[in-house]
Design brief:
6-stranded mixed sheet; 12 helices; 16 strands
């Protein structure tokens, strides 16, 4: 039996029903406030329930599995005060694969392992005064995934707590994804390091400049991406350490990124996939769904023409070996759509632009604006040609 990859739920948040089978790469699309992040967070809760419970207890949260209100109390501590009870209602039911799942935990005598590295959308909030905030610096209303991710960065980067990680500009021997990210996001940087004065802080050292740049002087895209750069180098650069996580979830990776930088991020996603990670992305960016579309179309062609990997280099400049590995990875796309007060979830994985299903044809609404723009410009061009001699 393989790793769990199916999540079902009833009466969770705005969704009356959801049924997802996660691929190696899964993309969740849809308008704001339709529950994409809540579903992604639910998956981490389902897989990492005991780990989450251990961390919350370690930080002083009062969680007694024997109390009748344990489930909504645990949900509030995990999703954020108020939101948890709104998402996890008395009638909420969840299944992992085919088995019922419950938030209740069993007593244990060991520290449980974490399967999901979760990178939240509000990751820039992790960085205060040019350094990651500690878990206790957040409020009860902040979701667990934000507080925990910030604490992970802090323990990794702060010399007194961890290894004092330094992120150096790559040389010619480094992988293409890392070179592309530095070229697009940190083109003038020699490295990102920790500077200790009265308190340590993250600074960017520029080529030919003695004075370092503290975090708040960086561009918004550089600040937004720094937590992703840290996660990438943590998971991919240390090849001597066994892989700690099975899943990587990233909310809205496109925040603050130019289209060229987003292409560099997709190269990173490709390498995560080839290293065996399962990746979940929530997004509003058509360019990310385009990556799934190209890969799915290439997989279809590859069955008849095994040379597709060579052509794909024109889309993203990845080694052919990487593309060949990607052609064996399953890709799924799910669209979230609001209808009244409820949200419906639909598998739109084929991404067929000619589909009679409008949600699939418009990639969950991401291409609707461009389609209308083409139609309007086409009509205006036709009128112009009709009236001009």
């Amino acid at each position: 039996m393989g790793a769990p990859n199916r999540l079902r739920a009833e009466h969770f948040a705005q969704l009356e029903a959801l049924d997802l089978t996660w691929g190696h790469l899964t993309i969740l699309v849809g308008p704001q406030a339709t529950g994409k992040s809540l579903v992604a967070q639910l998956w981490k809760w389902v897989l990492d329930k005991t780990f989450v419970y251990d961390v919350l207890k370690d930080y002083g949260f009062i969680l007694d599995p024997h109390q009748p209100d344990f489930a909504p109390t645990f949900a509030d501590a995990y999703f954020g005060e108020g939101l948890g009870r709104a998402a996890w209602r008395p009638q909420t039911r969840v299944w992992l694969q085919h088995e019922p799942w419950t938030p209740r935990v069993r007593p244990h005598h060991y520290w449980s392992l974490e399967q999901v590295l979760y990178i939240p959308a509000h990751r820039a909030l992790c960085l205060l005064d040019s350094r990651p905030r500690p878990f206790r610096d957040f409020s009860a209303a902040d979701p667990f995934v934000l507080k925990h991710f910030s604490e992970q960065m802090r323990k990794s980067l702060e010399p007194a707590l961890g290894q004092g990680v330094k992120l150096e500009a790559p040389d010619a021997s480094q992988p293409a994804w890392l070179t592309a990210i530095w070229r697009q996001l940190y083109p003038d940087a020699a490295g990102i390091r920790l500077q200790v004065r009265q308190q340590w802080r993250i600074v960017q050292h520029l080529h030919g400049h003695a004075a370092p740049l503290p975090l708040m002087t960086w561009s918004s895209g550089q600040r937004e991406f720094f937590p992703l750069l840290w996660a990438a180098q943590t998971t991919l650069m240390d090849t001597a350490t066994p892989q700690a996580y099975s899943w990587i979830v990233i909310e809205e990776p496109e925040m603050g990124l130019h289209t060229a930088a987003l292409r560099a991020f997709l190269m990173l996603v490709a390498h995560w996939l080839t290293r065996g990670y399962r990746v979940i992305l929530t997004t509003h960016a058509a360019q990310i769904v385009e990556f799934a579309w190209v890969l799915r179309q290439a997989q279809r062609v590859h069955k008849a023409t095994p040379t597709a990997a060579a052509v794909l280099k024109r889309y993203l400049d990845l080694p052919e070996a990487t593309w060949r590995a990607l052609l064996g990875r399953e890709v799924r796309v799910y669209g979230f759509k609001r209808q009244g007060q409820k949200v419906h979830l639909k598998d739109i994985s084929p991404l067929d632009a000619w589909s009679e299903d409008a949600d699939e044809a418009d990639w969950g609404g991401l291409t609707e604006s461009a389609t209308r723009a083409h139609e309007v410009v086409g009509q205006l061009t036709a009128w112009q040609e009709a009236v001009e001699p």
